[in-house]
Write a structure and sequence with these properties.
The complex is a heterodimer of chains A (254) and B (184). Chain A has 254 residues and is an alpha+beta fold. Chain A contains nine helices and seven strands; from the N terminus they run H-H-H-H-H-H-H-E-H-E-E-E-E-E-E-H. Helices cover 47% and strands 21% of the residues of chain A. A seven-stranded antiparallel β-sheet of chain A has the order 1-2-3-4-7-6-5, sandwiched between helices. Chain A starts with a helix and ends with a helix. Chain B has ten helices and no strands. Chain B starts with 7 loop residues before the first helix and ends with a helix. Classes of the chains: A alpha+beta (254), B mainly alpha (184).
Chain lengths: 254, 184
């Protein structure tokens, strides 16, 4: 074997692409040729260095979602489809909606349906052992817990100083989608703050609805929909949403 | 381009077969296009095309098939860049292949030993390689394809893959040694 041949073949040796007899042939040449031997040693080092270094890239989650969204979705119920169409403002946005985010609710019957699901989720959470998946009064424990479980990162803000104690977080299912719930306590009352992404980044001022005896305060800001649900009074729930918003703004600006 | 009214069962099979390779496809796109946003667009287009042609896919391996589609998408992107003239393509491929292999060997300093480099330095050196050598090297060392799979992905004979890989590694070795010479 000549050096010219070996220049090509020693890569095949290195990459394990040679059968035993060819491998022996290349190895024989390398043993007798210092130049090829040095080259092979360097290539082997490069090969190992590249295998050990983190040279791969990870696809951004948003890209994965866009691709998932472009795939035909299995079994979409008619009611849901109409909800998505009502909300869709373009294929990109309806694509986002189809991937696993609760859509912004534009029509009142949709609003009612979502709110009634949220009340059910709130009631479920009050049953023993269902309130929190992660129990912590520390926002730096609760917030990272949501990582990887949701497409959004819900703001987790400790409002203990303002009279609302953070007690934990939970994953819930609303509108057939995973949704984040941040749980607060006010005296003996539980407040569930549900957070979901919306395609609409405009700020929507808070409004209060009442359903089955629960107050629901909902608003949108920075691309997220919020619903705070509790049996505390409407004025106290309004206070909660104001303090939450104020703290959220302070966090962003500070 | 939505394929909304298509068969959900086909979509499920496609998802199971193709989505596990998303990071691989994205990695290749990043090295080929050297731009995160362009790479995202190219990968999305690649998956849409793959879904469209999934019926005609007969195997054997999903990864080289996806890579082959991605290469076509990237080629269109290169053409777009060339037309817009904002991002000149630095190397016309083909010319490199005429250059004999031993040119790089001359530059290798005597007795110099390759030293460890961090991922950032290696990425920069790989990025600086000319096409089609960079592509071949990335497919082998980073995407872990066999010679046959690389040949499938790039639509070239295995012999061509082997000579490109030899050239790519020789160039990388020179760059590696030259860099550590400078940083000394």
């Amino acid at each position: 074997m000549t050096c010219d041949d070996a220049e090509i073949m020693l890569h095949a040796l290195l990459d394990g692409e040679l059968d035993a007899s060819h491998a022996r042939e290349v190895e024989g040449h390398v043993e007798s040729c210092p130049r090829c031997k040095a080259a092979l040693a360097d290539y082997r080092k490069m090969h190992e260095a590249m295998a050990n270094a983190e040279l791969r890239y990870t696809a951004p989650p948003a890209l994965r979602q866009r691709i998932e969204a472009a795939l035909p979705q299995p079994k979409i119920k008619p009611s849901r489809r109409s909800l998505l169409q009502g909300f869709a403002m373009g294929s990109a946005i309806s694509a986002i909606a189809a991937t696993g985010l609760v859509a912004i609710v534009l029509r009142d019957d949709d609003r009612q349906r979502i709110e009634s699901e949220l009340v059910s989720a709130h009631l479920r959470s009050l049953q023993a052992g269902h309130l929190t998946d992660v129990v912590s009064t520390d926002q730096h424990t609760v917030k990272p817990w949501f990582n990887g479980k949701l497409d959004v990162s819900p703001p987790v803000i400790d409002l203990t100083a303002q009279g609302f104690t953070l007690i934990g977080g939970r994953l819930d299912y609303v509108d057939a989608r995973a949704i984040g719930a941040v749980v607060y306590r006010r005296r003996q009352h539980v407040i569930n703050l549900f957070v979901a992404q919306t395609a609409n980044t405009e700020r929507r001022p808070a409004r209060t609805d009442t359903l089955q005896g629960f107050n629901i305060r909902s608003w949108s800001n920075r691309g997220l929909n919020y619903w705070a649900i509790s049996d505390i009074g409407a004025d106290e729930l309004a206070e909660f949403s104001e303090k939450f918003e104020a703290a959220a703004n302070a966090n962003k600006e500070g | 381009m939505m394929v909304a009214n298509d068969d959900p069962e086909k979509a499920r099979r496609f998802r199971d077969a193709a989505l596990p390779y998303l990071d691989d496809v994205y990695t290749l796109a990043r090295y080929l296009l050297r731009d995160a946003a362009d790479a995202e667009d190219a990968v999305q287009e690649c998956y849409l095309r793959a879904l469209k042609h999934f019926d005609s896919y007969r195997g054997p391996a999903m990864k080289p098939w996806l890579f082959a589609i991605l290469r076509n998408v990237c080629r269109a992107e290169f053409a777009r860049r060339a037309a817009s003239m904002t991002t000149p393509i630095e190397d016309a491929s083909g010319a490199e292949e005429q250059t004999p292999l031993w040119h790089e060997e001359q530059a290798t300093p005597e007795g110099e030993v390759l030293r460890e480099r961090d991922a950032g330095a290696i990425r920069r050196m790989v990025d600086a390689l000319a096409e089609p050598f960079k592509e071949t090297l990335v497919l082998r060392e980073i995407n872990n394809l066999s010679y046959r799979e690389i040949a499938e992905a790039v639509g070239a004979p295995v012999g061509t893959v082997m000579s490109r890989l030899a050239r790519a590694r020789a160039m990388l070795r020179s760059a590696w040694l030259a860099e550590q010479e400078q940083s000394r």
